[in-house]
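Forum: Protein Structure Q&A
Topic: Joint prediction for protein chains with partners

I've read a bunch of threads here and the consensus seems to be that you should model interacting components together rather than docking separate models afterwards. I'd like to see that in practice. Below is the full input, 441 residues plus whatever partners are listed. Could one of the regulars post the assembled result?
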Amino acid sequence: MNWLIEFFGSAEYWTGDDAIPLRLLQHLEYSFLAFAIAALVAIPLGLLIGHTGRGAVIVVVSANAARALPTLGLLVLVVLLIGVGTLWPVLIPLIALAIPPILVNTYEGIRGADPDLRDAAYGMGLRGSQVLFRALLPVALPLILLGLRLSAITVVATATVAAYVGLGGLGRYIIDGLATKNYAEVFGGAVLVVLLALAVQTLFTLLSRVIVSPGVRQVR
Amino acid sequence: MDEPLVRWDWIARNWDNGGPTSVKVLLENHIVMAFVPVIAGLLIAIPLGLACARYRWLYQPTVGIMNVVYSLPSLALFSILLSVTGLTQTTVIIPLTLFSLAVLIPAVVDGMQSVPDHVRQSAVAMGFQPMRRLTRVELPIAVPVVLAGLRVAAVSSISLVSVGALIGQGGLGYLFIDGWQRQFYTPIVVGIVLVVALALVADLVIIVAQRLLTPWSRRRA
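Posted by a regular:
Agreed with the consensus. Here's the joint model:
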């Protein structure tokens, strides 16, 4: 508790380069950028693979690789190889780690849709893309949102670790605090990261209440 | 940079150099910190999962809590625990146990639900007492689903341990820090390869265990 008071009560963390609002904004900016790019790549790809059934191997491989690859190692290696300077060397591993959860869940959502539903949609005279967007997508939406949520959580966590290779954001407090043995700073930063993760989690729970079709929710 | 991605002589020199940061010692530490959480997680998840499958009202709140736990970044948890458990392996093991639980409890519940009702009723009709029905009929049928969860838990645990290097307890993760500080690729590549290899081996061991534990599934397929 004393650490929290020390951290949040210190003027050092409310003004200048190390101000909490600034660090939070940075964290949100990197996370959102990586998340948005990952979603733009993974959702169309997942829809395509799920609908056509071609390239399912990519999904399986990426899911397994994403789980097994150590985040810190990947970050350090990519940043060393490309070199620091711009934001991209750090964003690339973030995006790479954000893609698999979305890809896998989008694919599973489309693949796992009731075959009767698919047949019925074709029977009603819908064309391939109409079947996908009007019948399969709404049914797959809960799983896709789950994928987006897992991905967002991964990004927020990885962006924290990425402070080690020079990224700004809330991870800075943890990394800098550890380096200077300022444990109040480490603790305060960790609490902020936890709060951010909880906020993201809540946001997606609310989002799925709003955009998932009530019909789909009933069936589940 | 002219630096090659892998310097083989570095590996030969540092594999077992007797020091606390020889690759062999780091690998051993890594295995301990990765597997203790998974095994502890399984031992806790089985009774909790069974309770959730038996008393349905427990399920929603438990899964809710586990979802929240799963969303917490590992580095943040390590940092918070640092004030309680200090720079020890426990600081890494406790959060990873929580993550394992978040995967394994739903797996145990799903596994119990995968037991067809007619099988359960047949067992009752054949005179199985609840305890024997659980251990002889229900748990064996639940094995594939539980082990699928165990694979996810084991692989994630192995890769997450390396984040612990930032607080000084990361097994092979130390190689990432070392490589970064010296701008030297070889330790980083060695670390990544060993972590992925360890994950693959763990995955394979669980697949083999599943085949041995469920001999009937092979016959059907």
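Chain B touches chain A through 44 residues (CB under 8 Å).
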